[in-house]
Every structure is written in structure tokens, then in C-alpha cells.
Amino acid sequence: MAAPRTRFSPSPTGYFHIGGARTALFNWLYARHYQGTFILRIEDTDMERSQKLYEDDILASLQWLGLDWDEGPYRQSQRLDTYEFYARELFNRGAAYYCDCPPEVLEQQRQEALAKKEKPRYNGRCRERRLASGPDRALRFRCPRQGVTHWHDLTKGPIAFDNAELDDLVLVRADGVPTYNFAVVVDDITMNISHVIRGDDHVPNTPRQILIYEALGATLPQFAHIPMILGPDRAKLSKRHGAPSVMDYKKMGYLPDAMVNFLARLGWSHGDQEIFSREELIRFFTLEHVGKAASIFDTEKLSWLNGHYLRETPAGKLAPLLREFLAQIGIQTEVSERLLKIVRTLQPRAHTLADMAEQARFYFQSPRPYEEKAAAKFLTPAIKPVLQTISQRLAQLPAWTETEINALFQEVQKDSDRKMKEIAQAVRLALTGRTASPGLYEIMEILGPEEVQRRLQTAMEACR
Ligand code: GLU
């Protein structure tokens, strides 16, 4: 097979969402798997709804996800001459005709059809009028009235539409702007796209597009329509199911590798494997294993995957990211050996970077107030002398290391009438304000002797 050329062609009419990212990923993976070319094309012919802000968001999201493109970004708004050329071509071939039906009349017909619960379609008034081009005239496709348009979809199998079901769609509006179905075909032909991989909400557009290819005598690409992503309630994924845009996930502290792994599994599988490196995704990805059924967006799985990638990523790479999340909760710090140690203690416990920053708070700020119930249970008069002993012995510790601290605790416990759990929980509360935290001795090593002493003093005062 010749190296494929795939494209991702978003419309910049809203923030970049999960569905778009998944389509981009599948196109990217397909191109990378077969050493093809991945093209980025911005479909911005809808001038009213397209915004630069959204285009920037799309590009930033793709970059964040690491989905690099080989060509583009092309912009449809800069290709109007090309569409004009192909529009003339279709007209000259008799495959398109001009239409001067006033928009109000068309709208009225549409409303009447809807009121009768019929599919709105153009009545063909201008089809045989042989109008020349002119102001206020749209160009329409002369859709065959008979026959069937069919294709073999690479994910859905054979699909067929009766041509009688399709109407004479507008190719170029009266204001000269090409419509989606026309521009996309011209682009896919001129950019030599071999595989059109997109959401299955586009299935009804495909027969219209195929008829335009045929009218132009162009070779068809292969089509692969990938199933929808649904929310956990099985409704079409939308804002109410969680974060609306890809960049929101970055802001919440998800890692791009986790996101890519998660997106890949929305509709594609490789046995029962869940965790894939990028190299594995590229190696294993083919369209044969894209399922037919809709996939369910499961935030718990995303969180689980993110936890995995947080554990696997080297601390040196996470520290600068964590630093930004700490700044957001008012903690300014440098990327230092200390921050790296902090990261290592939290890697096994955090699900997002935001979560990690919150869990790191006690390393930078004294824990006040303590968890209330736990304080009543563990910071008691009976534990106070034990804390006192710990404090005194710590002051004489030869070396401030995890091992030394550990040994000291074993001794103190032996000499006391308290269980290790009671002692540890009291000290943990003293140092972190909580009953769950990374290992006590590693925390103490990082906090350092002065800070540990200060916090023990405060906790002793709270024992009652
Ligand atoms: N611009 C279209 C969209 O955002 C995609 C068109 C296509 O992939 O053919 O849905």
C-alpha cells in the first residue's frame, strides 16, 4: 500500500473537545503506523462562528498532546480560488446549476416540510432553468435522482444510500462561500487524502461527498467513520459530563501521555491491554480494531491512567509541572533537589498534578487546623510525653536521615507503653495535619530538624 495521507480538519467554532482530540489521534496514529503523512486543515469557512481564539486552542491542544502534523495548518479561508475553480468545473460538466430561489422562500418551504414531519429538501425549481452565474445565485449540485451510492467503510462495513434520498445541495452560497460538503471534497482531492477518518456523525454527508468526487472524475479516498463517544449515562458526550475542552484537562493536572492513552482506548482496542506507550500505540494501531459500538467516557479510568503516568514519569520531569500547580495554590518554590524528593514521596499517591500540589501543601505550610476527629483521638495527654521524648532524642540525632529517624522511633516505642500506630498517627498529625500521608520518616527527612521540632511543639500544646 502507498503511504497513506490522513487529515484532521477541525472547525474552529468552539474549544477543542475530547471527540475532536480522539479523531485527531486516530488520524495521527494511522499516518504514523504506516509511515504516512498527517495533515492539519482548519475548516474556517463559517466566518461568523470561526474564531482565532478557537484555532489557537486547537493548535495548543494538539501540541500539548504531542500530535505533530507534517503539513499545514491549511486554512479553507485561504483557498477560495481553488473552490471557485472546482465550482466552475462542476458547472461546465453539467453537474451543478445556479439557483436564484430567495432564501426566505427556501426557509418557508423548510418550515412547511418540518411542520408536516417531512425531511426538508430542495424542490428542484432551478434544476432545469439553465441560469448563468450572477449575484444572489447559489451553485447547487445536480444530484442523480436514481441509483444508489455506496461504499465500504473501513470501520462500519458496507453502507448504501438511495440517491433519491439526497437533494440538490448547495455547493457555493450566493455570497461566494463554499459549503462544508463541497470544500471538504475539493480539499481532500487536492491534498491527495487517501483515508478520511472522522466521527460517524458525518456518515450522512459521505454519499453527498462521494457523488461530488464522481462528478469531478476523482478517485475516492477510503472512509472510516469512528463511533461516537458517549457519557456514562449513554447520552452523547457533552459539557455536562465534565471538562468541556482538552486544555481543561491540562489545567486539572492530567499528563498528555495519560490523555493520549485514554483517547486511544475510546473505540480502539488491542486485546485486553490498557496501558500503551506512544511507540506501542503507533506499532499496534490499525483500523481493524476500531469497534463498531459507541465508547463510554469514563473519568475514573482517566484518573487511574493518570495516576499510572504520574508514577512512571521521572521526578525531574514532574517537578517543573508541579511547581506551576503549587504556584496556583499560592506556594512559590524553585525546582530543587528538595522538590524532586517531595515529588517522589507523592508519586504513588496522586491522581493529578493539582491533587499532588494539594498533597504537597504541608511541606511548605504548617498544618493548621488538624483534622478534627483525628486530633481528638491521637493528640491526647497520654501521647504528650512520648512526643516529648521523640523531640528530645531527635535533637541529639547524629545524622538527619530516614534510617536514623526510623531507628529512633523503634527505640522510643519500645521504651513507651504506646503502640507504634498511635505514636505514628500523632506525629503524622503534628507534621501534616492529616492521618494519611507519605511515609513518616521520609517526610521528616525532607522537612528538616527545625521544622519538625516546631511542629512537634505545636502538637504537644494541642494535646488534651
Ligand atoms: N470540519 C468538520 C468537523 O469539525 C470535519 C470534517 C471532516 O472530517 O470531513 O466536524
Short summary of the structure?
With 464 residues, this protein is mainly alpha-helical.
Characterise the protein shown here.
With 464 residues, this protein is mainly alpha-helical. Helix content is 47%, strand content 11%. It has 19 helices and 12 strands. It has a 3-stranded parallel beta sheet with strand order 1-2-3. A 3-stranded antiparallel beta sheet has the order 4-5-8. Strands 6-7 form a two-stranded antiparallel sheet. Helix 1 links the parallel strand 1 and strand 2. Helix 15 packs across helix 16 and helix 15 runs antiparallel to helix 19. It is elongated, with a radius of gyration of 31 Å. It starts with a strand and ends with a helix. The structure holds glutamic acid. Glutamic acid binds next to loops.
Blueprint of the fold:
Layout: E1 5-8, H1 18-33, E2 37-42, H2 52-65, E3 71-75, H3 80-92, E4 96-99, H4 103-115, E5 138-141, E6 148-153, E7 157-162, E8 170-172, H5 180-190, E9 195-199, H6 206-215, E10 222-226, E11 229-230, H7 246-252, H8 256-264, H9 278-284, E12 295-296, H10 299-312, H11 315-328, H12 337-346, H13 353-364, H14 372-378, H15 384-395, H16 402-415, H17 420-432, H18 440-447, H19 449-462
Parallel strand pairs: 1-2, 2-3, 9-10, 11-12
Antiparallel strand pairs: 4-5, 5-8, 6-7
The structure holds glutamic acid.
Residues 9-11, 43, 184, 198, 202 line the site of glutamic acid.
